[in-house]
Design brief:
This protein folds into 3 domains: 120 residues, 3-Layer(aba) Sandwich (Rossmann fold), CATH 3.40.50.2300; 162 residues, Rossmann fold (3-Layer(aba) Sandwich), CATH 3.40.50.300; 135 residues, no CATH class. Helices cover 47% and strands 14% of the residues. It has 21 helices and 16 strands. The protein has a 5-stranded parallel sheet, with helices on both faces. A 5-stranded parallel sheet has the order 7-10-13-6-14. Helix 3 links the parallel strand 3 and strand 4.
Length: 443
């Protein structure tokens, strides 16, 4: 068993000695009260955390509030208590703990817990947040950890988030943790017309339509006993929703040009950057179809809300390649960037940087290459799909304000906060500049 980093929250000195003996092969840290436990948990550096529920006397001394804090850091939370009543067990699991045992037989209990933890780690992959979905953001780690609890079920999952946040990557990770024997099959619904999407999903027989020279297996059949990932689900037509709804309900369908049904035990994961409830109200999304694809909802935050991930992602994208050195000013410039294209924009920035830059990176180079990365991603278009949807939901005035604020803040960043330079470059009035800066940032 590899050496683990373990935190034990226990106020009883004798109990701490017992735990130290049982965990002697590992790196063990102790906390005797809630204040020190909270400080140590917030570092997010522990694999497991053993939590004593009775920290001193009285309700205020309860260790219950340590459970969600540990879980939010991606730590395997184990509750140890002198009471094993249904009330205590139920409350501990409701708060998100991963394991529970009654004190008294630590030699056997601790060993079993470590075995269960290692089994779970081998199944989930200890490199999940350093290789598969790179993030140090506690909230994002908690969201993904929670989603993986449902990976082995047949429950449909919807992943929400702006373009470029990693929705496809997360869908693939969920599939890989599902234990399903079939393939992960992805399709972007917005990339096809209605007729082409139907042919792609259901497949067709030779001669079913002009150009169908051979029979072709559709995505539904390809995803048998696997996962069908429907990206940009909000762009699917009502007619196509009706046909797919029936296939989901019956797990069978007819390929185009065939009178013989095909069967497929596929699991649905879908994704969109759009407001699904807004689509339902606008009559663009059937409620019964929504009910079939909606089970667990996973919300991925934009990179602007988890800037702690910028430099870990930079390191990940440059691993095994050219070693780059960012000056202090360049790092500060990167930290202030809004990342409208999210992780996809960051990846394109790194590609540009590695392909044509020297080892030492200046703030001027950062500003120039960030502009190129946004432009190559279509971010320079006046009305992207996301901007258009925002305008429909919030009104054109709010959309114009949002675009103005993004341009003003970016220009301010690129000019190191010099307002006079911003006024000159954008040819705007002082009143407009300060009105923009007073408005809160809109996500």
């Amino acid at each position: 068993m590899p050496k683990l980093s373990i935190l034990v929250i226990e106020d009883d000195p004798l109990a701490r000695k017992v735990m130290e003996k049982q965990l002697g092969k590992h790196s063990v840290d102790f906390a005797a009260d809630k204040a020190s436990a909270k400080a140590k948990l917030e570092t997010g550096r522990h694999d497991l955390c053993f939590i004593d529920l009775e920290l001193g006397d009285g309700e205020e001394a309860s260790g219950l509030e340590m459970i969600p804090l540990a879980v939010s850091q991606g730590t395997y939370a184990v509750v140890m208590s002198g009471h094993d009543s249904e009330k205590f067990v139920e409350r501990a699991y409701a708060l998100g703990c991963n394991d529970f045992y009654a004190k008294g037989n630590e030699e056997a209990n601790v060993g079993h817990i470590l075995d269960r933890f290692m089994g779970r780690r081998e199944k989930s992959g200890s490199d999940l947040f350093t290789q598969r979905f790179v993030t140090e953001d506690p909230a994002t780690r908690a969201v993904i950890t929670d989603a993986l609890k449902y990976a082995s079920s047949d429950l449909p999952i919807i992943i929400l988030g702006p373009s470029g946040t990693g929705k496809t990557s997360l869908a693939k990770i969920i599939h890989d943790h599902s234990g399903r024997t079939g393939e992960f099959v992805a399709i972007n619904c917005s990339a096809y017309t209605e007729d082409l999407l139907e042919a792609e999903l259901f497949g067709y027989r030779k001669g079913a339509f002009t150009g169908a020279g051979d029979s072709r297996k559709g995505k539904l059949l390809a995803a048998d006993h696997g996962t069908l990932f429907l990206d940009e689900i909000g762009s699917m037509s009502l007619k196509m929703q009706t046909k797919l709804l029936k296939a989901i309900e019956e797990k069978s369908f007819y390929p185009l040009g065939s009178d013989k049904p095909e069967k497929s035990q596929f699991r649905i994961i879908s994704a969109t950057l759009e407001d699904l409830q807004g689509l339902i109200k606008a009559g663009k999304l059937r409620f019964d179809f929504f009910q079939r694809i909606h089970g667990l909802t996973v919300q991925l935050a934009p990179l602007a809300q988890r800037k702690c991930d910028v430099f870990p992602l930079l390191s990940f994208f440059t691993r095994g390649g050219k070693r780059l050195n960012f000056t202090a000013a360049a790092k500060e410039r990167l930290s202030r960037h809004a990342w409208p294209g999210n992780v996809r924009e960051l990846k394109k920035f790194v590609d540009l940087l590695v392909a044509g830059h020297e080892g030492s990176v200046t703030p001027e180079a950062v500003a120039r290459l960030l502009a190129d990365a946004v432009a190559s991603d279509g971010g320079g278009a006046f009305a992207s799909e996301e901007q258009y949807r925002f305008a429909l939901k919030n009104g054109l005035d709010a959309s114009v304000d949002r675009m103005t604020d993004e341009i003003v803040r970016r220009c301010l960043d690129e000019n190191n906060g010099k307002k006079t330079k911003v006024l000159a470059d954008l040819k705007i009035s002082t009143r407009l500049l300060y009105a923009s800066l007073k408005r809160p940032e809109i996500s």
